[in-house]
Amino acid sequence: MEEILSFSDLESEIYKMSCEIGRLIITQILDECDKQLMATRDKSRYVSKSIGKTTIKSILGDIEFNRRYYYDKRKHHHIYLLDEKIGLDGEGLYSKMIESVLSDLVNDLSYERAAAVITEVYPTSLSKTGAWDIIQKIGKKIKLEQKALEKQEMCSQYREEKKTVKVLFKETDGVMLKHQLPNKKNGNKMEAKMMTVYEGWDENAPKRLVGKTVIGGMISSNKFKKKTDAVIGGIYNIDEIDLCVTNGDGAGWIDSISEDGLYQLDRFHVVKMIRENIEDDNKKEEMVKALRSKDIGELFDLLTTYINSIDGVCPKKKVKKANKLFGYLDNHKDNLLRYNERKDVTVPNPPAGMVYKNMGVQESQNCALITMRMKHKRMRWSKKGADNLINVICSRKNGTIRKTIMAAEPDLRGAFKMNNERIFSANDIAEVVGKNKYYNSFSASMPAVGGLNRGLSKILLSLSHV
Description:
Blueprint: H1 7-40, E1 46-58, E2 61-72, E3 77-80, H2 81-86, H3 96-105, H4 111-121, H5 128-150, H6 155-158, E4 167-183, E5 187-198, E6 200-202, E7 205-210, E8 213-217, H7 221-235, E9 243-248, H8 252-256, E10 262-265, H9 267-277, H10 281-292, H11 296-310, H12 316-331, E11 354-355, H13 362-375, H14 383-398, H15 401-406, H16 426-434, H17 439-445, H18 447-450, H19 452-463
Parallel strand pairs: 4-9, 9-10
Antiparallel strand pairs: 1-2, 2-3, 4-5, 5-8, 6-7, 6-11
Helix pairs in contact: 1-16, 3-4, 4-5, 5-7, 5-14, 9-12, 10-11, 11-12, 16-19
């Protein structure tokens, strides 16, 4: 009885066949490149020693190829010239495409699940440890780029011209993560610092931020300020900004990085503090109303009267909570009003298609970027591991991750002068395709697929000339 061929079978087998042919093409191109390097090398410097085999894990599957090993008489060490020429770094030998796909997956999935998805979808295998190693490598690359930005060495690499804006908004907050190795000094928690920078809100989509850039890290407040200043300075012409507003919850590290521009307390956190520390429902609502009415004097009068009324009468815990609120508000009394509520602040008109509104987006940004991925499911992190993943998540959100992954990737067009001969033949293709268990069925019952060899031969022939 003739075996039934379903569409899923056809799709699966054509995909496998295409991947096999792709691996064949790449292997033969690399073999040709290695031969040319052998022939054109500086023979007085590079001494051929042996031939070694290596494997690159790619979206086409595992690509095995041989390349020559040389001794460099000038630098007194051994080297694979082909690896150097095509940009192999020797760290796991994963293709840039695998790294790119993984950098997308780990934003929402654990390392284990992300590795499993790649193994399921592509004809290669990736372990949880391999996935972790790749993300650490990418995270380190991002940090090196940011350090270079701090020295103003790479500002033009990402943007030839910096943006000019009159108003810039910055929101900051922290996310507490569990430490993998808790100690007596720091306990079992550590804080991820996060910032969202944007230019305003889209007039036609009220919840959409314009020009959004997210920055994060497991670093000190001093280093975080240098990092954020460098990133912002690489995007915007700082001297042209008339109003820069920072929105934060009053944490000490946020105060220390908010010296430039105008600083305001996040209204959500102020209202939360009032409601958590005032137990009288009527009094707390009166205070919230005074705050929203922009009457800061009335707010302090209400709070002072409340503290005097309970002092010596109510339990000390209740008085302590009220005094805590007073200290919080008093330390930030100049930052309680929002930027658009202050009489001494002139807000420039927004550009066409944009509006300026009340700030308060950082909580949702934290939830979408960090909290859902890194805080739940009993996850614990090392400081470096969390920092690298946060860098990858932020870079992906900013749309710069692929530039980082592909950085210093050699352009092979013109790097090697290929011969006008085919580096693979129709017989090579037939040999690969012929291994497919459905090949006979295709050629016998499907005329369109029966010409597959001829079509592929023409395509591969055209690709074989550089």
